[in-house]
Specification:
Length: about 475
């Protein structure tokens, strides 16, 4: 029979392993004692604190918990709101020592060669930035406005910049399999090749500049390792996404969809990165001020969420997304407007699609809406300017109160199309009641507030939507000139 007590040491070892800290970062700051310090990281535009430790009388503290921290660039904040940065990698048990008097200049890491290299990189950058500042200061004081002098200083600055780029490139290559390598690689600029343009081409410089821009655009994220989720917790990852999609490319839906899909597909190598990048685009373009960007939201919803690829999305979340985008997909810019066959105020029927017009202004409104009270008279004034150019106004009263509608029209006898979704009848008790004719206009045109204005071309394709009358006038001016 085996002695059960022989199992005790194994059990104790297992218990000890379970209780061992998953991260343990020992911090020493000479000149600081009996004070709290904080460990945190950057995420998008915010800073998050993950742990707090208290310095003892010798300036020592330990950040420690029984869980792993996510990879990324972290910071340690000391009293006085000074801080230094460190890398959180798979190795999360190391020490760092510095002094309050020279917080950055005296940092030394033990047990983390990657962090020591990261510190040496930061130190190098600071030294080079000081050299750049000194050169610019000398240029400003001594030789401002002198052409030869300006060229001399320009070459000096170029040499420093080239040296920095070589340093980062070499250090990234040496650490290509580590998070430091991921970080430094992402900081490298795109190297644009020289383009040969035939002598016969007019405006050679302009053509060369265009090709250079196209190359930078198409290779902007080549150095980013989208399989490494540590990039998410850096000070620059989101800002690069923002810059590229707001400054580097035109804000046309097709262009944005092309490059967003490209990055999302690259991010699928890492579950957290896939979720972050997909949600970045989905949330950003839901809040976009560009009226055509709802096409991007519909595309992302269909391709990633409603298809089931977004495994993090709950059934409730996907149901909400479906409900929302189903109200968008019918009225995307460039689509033919959904048909509305509605009763008019004169008790006839009007068809939106069969109403002849060079341009149709479709306006959903109600009399007691404060904004409508301001905008409809402006729409009437605009109508007088453009009616001779083939503009027709088709208004839809969104409520079911005939007396209210009658009273407004009596006070505002505008000679445009007044339509509504109602039909008057009686209930089983013989009392008068208004029924919907079932046009489903709220869902088809995503009516969430009034007034909601659409502009259609002569083929009833949607040109613009959800705009003020002032914006409508600007668009009509451009469209009628084009016609």
């Amino acid at each position: 029979m085996k002695n059960p007590f022989f199992l005790l040491p194994v059990a104790l070892l297992s218990l000890a392993a379970a209780r061992a800290p998953q991260y343990e970062i020992r911090v020493t700051v000479a000149g600081v004692r009996d004070s709290d310090i904080y460990l945190g990281y950057n995420y998008e535009d915010k800073h998050y604190v993950v742990d707090t430790a208290t310095m003892d009388s010798r300036g020592r503290a330990v950040f420690s918990k029984n869980k792993k921290l996510e990879k990324g660039v972290y910071f340690v904040v000391v009293p006085g709101k000074d801080y230094f940065e460190l890398l959180m990698t798979d190795n999360q048990q190391f020490s760092v020592a510095t002094s309050r008097a020279n917080l950055f200049g005296s940092i030394e890491f033990k047990g983390s060669p990657e962090n020591q290299q990261f510190y040496e990189y930061q130190k190098f950058l600071r030294q080079e930035q000081q050299r750049v500042s000194a050169i610019k200061e000398r240029q400003k004081k001594n030789d401002e406005g002198k052409k030869d002098s300006a060229e001399f200083y320009r070459k000096q600055l170029e040499q420093i910049e080239s040296g920095i780029e070589r340093y980062i490139k070499n250090l990234a290559a040496e650490n290509k399999d580590s998070f430091l390598g991921t970080l430094l690689s992402a900081l490298q600029p795109v190297e644009v090749p020289e383009f040969d343009v035939p002598e016969s081409v007019a405006n050679k410089d302009s053509v060369r500049q265009l090709r250079g821009y196209e190359y930078r655009r198409d290779h902007y994220f080549d150095h980013f390792n989208f399989a490494d989720n540590g990039l998410i917790r850096t000070p620059f990852f989101k800002s690069n996404l923002d810059f590229f999609f707001q400054k580097m490319i035109v804000p046309a839906p097709d262009t944005i969809i092309k490059y967003a899909d490209r990055l999302i597909e690259r991010s699928r190598a890492n579950d957290e990165m896939f979720r972050y990048v997909t949600e970045y685009f989905f949330q950003h373009y839901q809040k976009s001020d560009y009226m055509a960007h709802d096409a991007i939201v519909v595309h992302l919803a269909d391709k990633y969420y409603l298809s089931g690829l977004a495994m993090w999305a709950s059934d409730k979340y996907k149901s909400e997304i479906k409900e929302r985008v189903d109200k968008m997909r019918h009225n995307l810019i460039g689509n033919t407007a959904p048909e509305l066959l509605l009763p008019t105020h004169e008790n006839t029927y009007a068809s939106l699609l069969k109403t002849p017009a060079e341009f149709t202004v479709l306006c959903f409104w109600e009399p007691n809406c404060g904004h409508c009270k301001k905008e409809l008279p402006l729409l009437w004034e605009l109508y007088q300017k453009f009616r001779d150019k083939g503009v027709v106004v088709f208004t839809v009263y969104t409520q079911y109160k005939r007396p209210e509608w009658d009273a407004y029209i009596a006070d505002h006898p505008y000679d445009w199309i007044y339509a509504w979704d109602g039909i008057e009848g009686a209930n089983s008790s013989g009392e008068p009641v208004t029924y919907s004719v079932g046009s489903n206009f709220r869902a088809l045109y995503d009516i969430r507030s009034t007034p909601t204005v659409y502009l259609l071309d002569k083929n009833k394709k949607i040109i613009a939507k959800r705009m003020s009358i002032e914006t409508l006038e600007k668009i009509l001016n451009e469209e009628t000139k084009r016609e």
